[in-house]
Write a structure and sequence with these properties.
728 residues; mainly alpha; 2 strands; exocytosis
């Protein structure tokens, strides 16, 4: 540090000291070299000596090496060969070990391909699962394994697509075969029901016999029925023994379900299957527009529905989870609502009772078939009650036409019977009893006309037709009896009553026909009790049962009789008016002809002959008709006198008119209809008689003096009437 200080001569002194130090070191080096120089010289000398020996050794070593190399070449070659062989051996061992790992993989993959080729897809999926979990992880480092690993998902998708395609073919197949499946199921259900019915009848026959004997005979009967049915089926309907499995191959749906379950997509498959089946259900439930025209249309509709639910029931019982009871119940409730709506609509178009009856039978078989598969069908039987009302309506329309035809073909005259055989034929058709008539000899005439037994037969036919619908409805005999009575009441009170009323109102029906109609209704009314017995016999329900309805035929025939009676009165009056219209009085004649007018005599003869026909009528009817006719005649004659267009009447005309009234009084006093007391019928002409007596006798003083008194001789003469006639 001091060298660089600013002290004077510091650098120079430093350099001097440094030179002195260098000279000291040089002297020490020289001393050391002098000390070691001799040793160095000796070493060089020895080294030069060793040089020559080293050259000799080198030559010897080189020669030895050459000879050793020549000797070792063969060994080296053999050694290298051994090494190469050992490497090959090691490689072969390694390859064998790796092949032993790869061969099972390749075998499994080959097996997988073979299973795919023979369409054993479920087994193929199991093989894939083994490959992925067991075999491929051991050899995953090889490229072919990577290719396999990449192909497996593709194969799975291929299997899914193929199985889904098979499922679609299966769905299409069951859609095509559903009607055949349903038809077969319905036939089998019907045969089972027939068999059960036959067995039940056999049990009823054997009831009360020895139990052991009865049991044996029931078994024999059952065996006979079974054998008979079996032979019939073998001979005529071999296809009836087919089941759903025979008609449709269900393996695609099982296979597809297993495949999707293995792939973990079971829920997807279930949803797809149910969705497609719901679509098919909607198609099956959609009827043809012309279904109501023929029974075949209904049969095909029911067969398709039964086939659909038979398949679903089969799937429900042979698979787990694909179809559940909840799902089928939901589907059935939806279908049932649609079915009821369709049947309600289409059955309303049916106007043929035979078609409605066949529809009912189809619905019963349809309901029994599905009930056998566990589906609730109570609503279908409720629907049958609605259809029963419609069936009754179609029956009523049909029978209305039958009644009209019977009435139009009737001659409305008593039935002639020439001998006992003819009489028995009529009595076999209609319950007629008349002890008085039985005493008469043949030939004789029954009081009713031909329409009465025909109407009675048709009413019984109606009851039979109504009974046909009530069968197989799972109802008690009491309910069936009640149904029959109600429908028969409708026939009597509505249809037959309407036909009778229309018949009575027809213009071509004369007084004779009306009289016969009254007689006919009387006999039909008496036959109502036999109809009640008839219904009781076919339903095995006693009439004394509290809930048994009664027939309303009595009121029906009474109403018809009243209408006929009223029509008789009306037609009699109309006939009287016709005679009155042809009256031709000369109101200005000076004196009478001395005899009654011709028109009046014709009228009286007509009334006399008409009332003779009334002898078969009930007494009151004939009396009322006779009284009504006389009163109408009296009123018409009075109106003739008081006619406003008639301005002048001579005493000669009064006398002539008096002669006509006398004939009327004579007719009334002759008792044209028995049963009148005293001069009751003559009182119909009392107003005319007193008026004419007043003018014939010209007894005005008496009339005026006694006017208003109960004992007056001219009590029935009205002052205004007398004044009007007096003015004329």
């Amino acid at each position: 540090r001091s060298v660089y200080d600013d002290q004077p001569n510091a650098h120079q002194r430093f350099m001097e000291k440094l030179d002195a130090c260098i000279r000291n070191h040089d002297r020490e080096i020289e001393k050391m070299c002098n000390f070691h120089h001799q040793g160095f010289v000796d070493a060089i000398t020895e080294l030069l000596k060793v040089r020559a020996d080293a050259e000799k050794l080198k030559v010897q070593v080189t020669d030895t090496n050459r000879r050793l190399q020549d000797a070792g070449k063969e060994v080296i070659a053999q050694t290298e060969e051994i090494i190469r062989c050992r490497v090959q051996q090691r490689n072969i061992t390694t390859v064998v070990e790796k092949l032993q790992l790869c061969l099972p993989v390749l075998e499994m993959y080959s097996k997988l391909k073979e299973q795919m080729n023979v369409k054993r897809y479920y087994s193929a999926l199991k093989t894939m699962e083994q490959l992925e979990n067991l075999y491929l992880p051991r050899v995953s480092q090889y490229r072919f394994c990577q290719i396999m690993i990449e192909n497996l998902p593709k194969l799975r998708e291929e299997i899914k697509e193929i199985s889904m395609s098979d499922l679609k073919d299966f769905l299409e197949s069951i859609r095509k075969h559903s009607d055949r499946i349903g038809e077969t199921a319905m036939k089998q259900a019907q045969q089972q029901k027939t068999f059960s019915t036959a067995l039940q009848k056999q049990n009823n026959v054997n009831y009360g016999r020895n139990m052991h004997l009865g049991r044996s005979r029931i078994l024999e009967s059952k065996n006979e029925i079974t054998l008979k049915r079996t032979f019939e089926e073998d001979d005529e309907h071999e296809e009836e023994v087919l089941t759903a499995q025979d008609l449709v191959d269900f393996s695609p749906v099982y296979r597809c379900l297993h495949i999707y379950s293995v792939l973990g997509d079971g829920e997807i498959f279930e949803n797809y299957y149910r969705k497609q089946r719901r679509k098919q259900a909607r198609l099956v439930l959609q009827p043809q527009s012309s279904m109501h025209e023929t029974v075949e249309g209904y049969r095909r509709y029911f067969s398709q529905i039964v086939g659909f639910f038979v398949v679903e029931d089969h799937i429900l019982h042979v698979t787990q989870g694909l179809v559940t009871r909840t799902y089928t119940d939901e589907l059935w409730n939806m279908a049932l609502s649609k079915i009821i709506a369709v049947l309600r609509t289409h059955s309303s178009y049916c106007s043929d009772p035979d078609l409605v009856l066949e529809l009912k039978n189809l619905i019963v078989v349809f309901a029994d078939t599905l009930q056998g598969y566990g589906f609730p069908v109570n609503r279908l039987f409720d629907l049958l009650f609605e259809i029963r009302d419609q069936y009754n309506e179609t029956l009523l329309k049909k029978w209305s036409g039958l009644f009209r035809d019977i009435f139009e073909a009737d001659n409305y005259s008593p039935i002639p019977v020439a001998n006992e055989e003819e009489y028995k034929i009529v009595v076999s058709k209609f319950p007629f009893q008349d002890p008085e008539l039985d005493k008469q000899s043949f030939p004789k005439k029954l009081p009713m006309s031909q329409s009465v037994p025909q109407i009675y037969i048709q009413v019984k036919e109606f009851i039979y037709a109504s009974l046909k619908f009530s069968e197989s409805l799972h109802r008690s005999s009491t309910e069936i009896d009640d149904m029959l009575r109600k429908s028969t009441n409708l026939l009597l009170t509505r249809t037959l009553s309407s036909c009778l009323q229309n018949l009575i109102k027809k213009p071509h029906i004369g007084l004779t026909e009306l009289v016969q109609i009254i007689i006919n209704t009387t006999h039909l009314e008496q036959a109502c009790k036999y109809l009640e017995d008839f219904i009781s016999n076919i339903t095995n329900i006693s009439q004394v049962t509290v809930h048994t309805a009664r027939l309303y035929g009595l009121s029906t025939f009474k109403d018809a009789r009243h209408a006929a009676e009223g029509e008789i009165y009306t037609k009699l009056n109309q006939k009287i008016d016709e005679f009155i219209q042809i009256a031709d009085y000369d109101w200005t004649m000076s004196e009478s002809d001395g005899r009654a007018s011709g028109y009046l005599m014709d009228l009286i003869n007509f009334l006399r002959s008409t009332f003779q026909v009334f002898t078969h009528l009930p007494g009151k009817v004939a009396q009322t008709a006779c009284m009504s006719a006389c009163q109408h005649l009296s009123t018409s004659l009075m109106q003739m006198l008081l006619d406003s267009e008639l301005k002048q009447i001579s005493m000669g005309a009064i006398q002539q008119f008096n002669l006509d009234v006398i004939q009327c009084e004579l007719f009334a006093s002759s008792e044209p209809v028995p049963g009148f007391q005293g001069d009751t019928l003559q009182l119909a002409f009392i107003d005319l008689r007193q008026l004419l007596d007043l003018f014939m006798v010209w007894d005005w003083s008496t009339y005026l003096a006694d006017y208003g008194q109960a004992t007056s001789k001219y009590l029935r003469v009205n002052p205004s009437t007398a004044l009007t006639l007096l003015e004329k």
